[in-house]
Amino acid sequence: MLLSGAISAQEEAYLYHINPYNFIRYDLNQMHYPGGRENIDRFQNKLEKLMTTGEGRMNIVHIGGSHIQAGSFSGQMRTRFQQMNGDMNAGWGFMFPYRISRTNSPFGYYIRYNGSWRSFRNVESKKSGTLGVGGISATTASPKAELTILLEKENVLDYSFNQLRIYYQNKADNYSVSVDSALISKTTKTDDYIDFTLNEFVDSLKITLTKDPGKAGEFTLFGMTTEKAPNGIMYHSIGVNGAHVPAYLRCQLFSEQLAEMQPDMVILGIGINDAYGRRFSESRFESNYAQLIDEIKQAAPEALIVFTSNNDSYLYRRYVNKNGEKVRESMFRMAEQYKAGVWDMFEVMGGLNSIVLWQKNQLAQSDKIHFTREGYLLIADLFFTAFLQDFEKQLQTKHKLAEDAAQPERNDLSKPSDSNNGE
User: 39, exposed or middle or buried, with CB in 10 Å at 0-12, 13-18, 19+?
Assistant: First the structure.
C-alpha cells in the first residue's frame, strides 16, 4: 500500500501551515545523505512496515544540550512522529528528576522527590562519578527516598503508561525499589535496571527507595523510561544544559545504556556549546565526535545517525558567531564518512546572522542562542517536514519501480496465447 495518502493527510494537518516567515529558507529544507542512503533506506523500510501493519517498534534517541533539555524541540518531534499514521504512541521514553539538580524540567512531565539527594551532570568538571546515557545522575544515602512521576495534562497525546524501567547503580545492594504493590503485574531486576510491568495504565506513579539499615552504601539513579505500547514509536529526549561532545564522552555507561534502548535512529544536536568561543577547532570537534560515534556504533551498529547543524547564534550577546558555519561543514564531512544524515538547521533558519530576525519575531531569546517555545516548535516542524517529505519521495520512487517491474508481466498476460491463433 502506498502511504502517500496518509502522509498527504498529515501535510494538510500541519506540514504546510508553518508561518511563512520571509527569512526562513523553506527551499533548502531537506534531508541530506552525503554518504549514501544505505542507513536511511533501512530505517524507512522498517518505518513503512510499521505504518502498513501497525506492528513493530521504532526507537529514536535525540541527544543534545539545552535545546533538548527544555523538551519543546524534542517534544514536538515526539508528537509528530507518533502521529504519522494514526496512533503510533509507544510511550514517553527517557525521564529524569532534573529538579534534584536545580535545573529546568522538560515540558511534558515533572518528578517530585523527597529525601536527601546530590546530583552530578556531565558538564560539571569539578565533580566526578558514574554517568549513564542521560548525562546526569542523582545519588541518595537517605534511609527512605521517594520519586513521583507526574505527567502534564497539557500533553497533546496520552502518555499514561504501564511499563517503567529504572536505570540505576546500587553496588552495595542495600536498597529495595518498589511501587504500589496493587499495581504490580511483573518485576524484573538486573544489576543495571529494574522493570516494572503494571496491571493498569497510570499518569502518575510513586517510586519508593528503602535502605537496609544493616548495610552502608548509596543508590544512584541514571534515569527512567515509561512505555505504553509494544508497537509504535518511542522517542527518547536526552539533554543537559551546556553539554558539548566531551561532556557525553565522560559518561561511562553511555554505550551500555544506549544499547538497552535499541535505537533505530540517533539524532545528534550537540555542537552549539562546542562552538561557543573564539578557539573553536574543527579537527578537535570532529575527533571528539568520532569517539562518540564509535560508542553509538558499538551500542547500535545499524542505527541511522542524523546530525542537526547548529542554529545561528551570537557570542556574548554582541558578536556574530561564525563558528556555526564551521560546525555545519564538519557535520557534512562526518555524515559522508559515517553514512549519516544531516538536517541543516543553520541554512534553513536563514544562515549567518539570521538569529536576529528570529529574535525580532519572538522566535528566539535575547541571548541570541536559545529559541522561545514557539521558535522550538517551529524548528521541530521544519525538521519533521524535511524528514517526511524525503520519506514520501522514497516511497513513491519505490512503488513506481515496483509498478514498472510488474508492467511487462501484465503486458504479456494481455497478449493472445498460441491456442487462440486458429492454427
Answer: buried
pLDDT in tens, 266-297: 999 999 999 998 899 999 999 999 999 999 99
Grid coordinates given for 148: 513521583
* Of 331, 343, 340, residue with least CA distance to 265: 340
Q: Please report which helix (H) or strand (E) contains residue 89, including its range.
A: none
Sheet strands (E) in 184-230: 184-189, 193-202, 204-211, 219-227
What is the pLDDT, as a whole number, of residue 15?
Answer: 52
Tell me which residue of 255, 257, 264 sits closest to 233, measured CA to CA. Answer: 264
**Residue carrying C-alpha cell 522493570:** 195
Q: C-alpha dihedral over 239, 241, 245, 250, to 10 degrees?
A: -90
What CA–CA distances, in Å, run from 18 to 118, 156, 215? 43, 18, 58
Q: What is the pLDDT of residues 180-203, one digit of tens each?
A: 999 999 999 999 999 999 999 999
Q: Which of 348, 352, 355 is CA-nearest to residue 30?
A: 348
Sequence letter at residue 226: T
Grid cell locating 331: 557535520
* pLDDT tens digits, 291-335: 999 999 999 999 999 999 999 999 999 999 999 999 999 999 999
190/7 Cα distance (integer angstroms) = 41
3-class SS of residue 329: helix
Model pTM above 0.85: yes
Q: What are the pLDDT digits (tens) for 65-84?
A: 999 999 999 999 999 999 99
User: Burial, 213: exposed, middle or buried (Cβ in 10 Å; 0-12, 13-18, 19+)?
Assistant: exposed
257-272 pLDDT, tens digit each: 999 999 999 999 999 9
CA distances from 352 to 138, 311, 363 (A): 39, 9, 16
410 has pLDDT over 90: no
What is the spatial distance between Cα 320 and Cα 150, in angstroms, rounded to a whole number?
41
User: What is the C-alpha to C-alpha distance for residues 9 and 331, in angstroms, rounded to an integer?
Assistant: 33
- Residue spans of alpha helices (H) in 309-372: 323-338, 345-348, 355-360
The CA distances from residue 301 to 39, 57, 261, 263, 391, in Å, are 10, 17, 13, 10, 22
Residues with Cβ within 8 Å of residue 401, at least 6 apart in sequence: none
Instruction: Determine the 3-state secondary structure of 278 from DSSP.
Output: coil
Spatial contact of 203 and 160, defined as CB atoms under 8 Å apart: yes
